[in-house]
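Hey, can you fold this one?
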Amino acid sequence: MASANISRSEDQFLCSICLDVFNEPVSTPCGHNYCKGCISGYWASSDFSQCPLCNETFQRAPELQVNTDFRDMLELFKRSRVSRDDSGSPAGPGEVPCDLCHGMKRKAVKSCLNCLVSYCNAHLEPHRTVQAFKRHELISPVETLEDRLCKKHNKAMEFFCREDQSCVCFVCLREDHVTHKAVSLEEEFKERKTTLKCAKRQVKHAVNEKCNMVTRIQNSMVQGRQEVDRTKAETDKAVAALVASIETKKVKLMKLLEEKQKAAEQQAQALIKRLQLEIASHNRTSTELEELSRTEDDFKLLQDLPSVSSPSNATLKTSFTVQSLLQIETVKSAVAKIEETLNQQMENIINEVNLATEERMQTQTENVFDDELGKIQEQYAIEVTLDPDTAHPSLIVSEDRKQVSDGGAKRNLPDNPTRFDSLHFVRGSEGFSSGKFYYEVTLKGQTGWEVGVVRESISHKGVDLSLSPENGCWTLGLYWGQLQANANPAVMLPSIKELQKIGVFVDYEGALVSFYDVDTRALVYSFTGCVFAASVTLLRSFIPFRSKTRIYPLFRPSAMEGSALLQISPVKCAKGK
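Sure. Predicted structure:
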């Protein structure tokens, strides 16, 4: 296999059989050079010995000796070619080495799914130049090419079995998977890539939506902080004004008390002064009377006896009692009433703030999650009814085909091809092969249930039905108190005690089935990459073709006797609340 960098002058170093640089070069009697192994194998596969180039025939195979001089020239050529070849760098850690390189393993640039070999740039040349090799499928280098080989038949696995979700070879398809739905690996790759792109778009959209929600919440937090700061400032201002008003009234009262007290004191001082004057006058009169009482001159007693005036009525009646201008109990009572009124008003304000905060938080939470589920409810809600012809004989479907319960005993009903005869299921009447749809189911009183969607082609007979996406079933169920998504393997989910109503959303083209807790607006679980459409391979021609498969809602009520009805609920759009 020649290097991509070999020029025309270097063609002399290439074996015309393997198209690679000579390995143990030998010469035939006619003068042409070949690899010893190539010419020996060529002659061994033929009835006579003949030169592949000039067709000269030899009576018997000549004894071949390695041309040592030519071999030494080849070694020099190989070393010089490796030194100037960009792909001659050795494979580093984590890189796939070339399977054909001897000694130093160069880095592989491609792996061939037909040859199951990885090639460096030099050894890949025949796949670029030889017509037979050009039809081979080349991929980016991988280390596990042997995993692409069927272990049972040692053949390349070229098909994908949809029922077993496994890669199979041509022989497996003909022997073990003859009745299974299979497609070529290329088609499965394309579909998986399409599904992957859809999933990436959905995740990207969800991330963008959540980022927008985060931004809105952050903006709301900033606005809330600004509002709280304004309210605090206004509250401080109002309380400060109230305190200032009370302080002003207090100062006014204190001033009034002081003024009244001073006036009372002035009046008392005037009264005291008057009384003191009268006391002095009485004292003088008393002294004169005392002197007269000691005299022995009767004539003088008759002439100088002073008159004693009786106390004036005003003076005698004047009495002064010290009284408080303002009773202390009156002040305390007034302050207590003010405090009680203020406390009551502040309690009312605090309760109002708490209530408004809770309502705002609830509104914000509902707005955030209503953005997702609310849009689904508003845009994709459909009318779903039950198909009695598919119901297990023990199930009882209501006349309006909106409710179902398990009667506990089989009834004598016609055995329709679509009737479940062993598993206690009932299918929806409406099937879908495109678009998006959403419906809700009330689970109140159900001790065990199952809800989801299934392919039209699932088996309705017997118990050999694995509730997995590989078999065309995407369901969520409650089993012995454990909530479970029926993936493969099953996914155990946190139990939701108050799960009363479940919403099922299906995006056919988006390969998505999602389940929502309608009351809490929360996403419970999502199946992604769902393969709704069935692919069938025509075994005679081995040409896969795609057929649109309808999917139907699926229901299973609780099997306990006397349990509540499992019912399909009308969808009420939360965005309209």
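The longest helix spans residues 185-294. Let me know if you want another pass with a different chain boundary.
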